Amino acid sequence: MSSMTRRDLLRFSTAALLGAPLVRARAATAESRHISFVHTHVNESLSIDYFSRGAYIPQALASLNRLLRDFRTGEQHPIDLALFDILHDLKALAGTSAPYEIISCYRAPQTNAQLHSQSSAVAEHSLHMEGKAIDIRVRGVDTARLRDLAQSLQRGGVGYYRKSDFIHVDTGRVRYW
After folding, report:
1. DSSP secondary structure of the chain
2. Burial class (CB in 10 A: 0-12, 13-18, 19+), 117
3. Residue of 7 and 38 predicted with greater confidence
4. Residues 123-152: pLDDT tens digits?
């Protein structure tokens, strides 16, 4: 187990303070959190409550990690819980119940290296390799609008890929491209 640095503690504390009003509002209005996905590459879908009664549901998280695996290698990795919460809140802002269409989520290091060698748009040290990023779209929601809503959350990175019709959302520092 790695120890938390002062920088990590400061980052965590700042994030907790900035997110506190949303956490209080969420706790007051919803006992469960639900998320739905359709994976565009493997033709699998999942619609599941992943949080209930103040706790994340381990079985649901296992199912989500399986769905969001590197579809090229089959390798699974734990997905950052904050990413699920961002996506949950983004769908509420978008006012839709349509599932997220997954373009890419977890990427094994060898997959990321291969994609990076083929495209400068793929970061060498991508947060996809840490389970902290996802590329998505939602049928019936304009991708530019989805980008704007994700940016309004101010909870991580948001990339917009107009030609490919998807957005990237991650739990890293707030930044846009």
Report:
1. -PPPPHHHHHHHHHHHHHHHHHHHHHHHH-SEEEEEEEETTTTEEEEEEEEETTEE-HHHHHHHHHHTS-TTT----PPPHHHHHHHHHHHHHHT--PPEEEEE----HHHHHHHHHH-TTS-TT-GGGGT-EEEEEETTS-HHHHHHHHHHH-SSEEEEETTTTEEEEESSSSEE-
2. exposed
3. 38
4. 778 999 999 999 999 999 999 999 999 999
Checking if the pLDDT of 37 tops 90, the result is: yes
Give residue limits of the domains in the chain. Answer: 1-30, 32-176
C-alpha span between 51 and 33 (Å, rounded): 5
32-176 CATH fold:
Muramoyl-pentapeptide Carboxypeptidase; domain 2 (3.30.1380)
Q: How many CB atoms lie within 10 A of CB 54?
A: 8
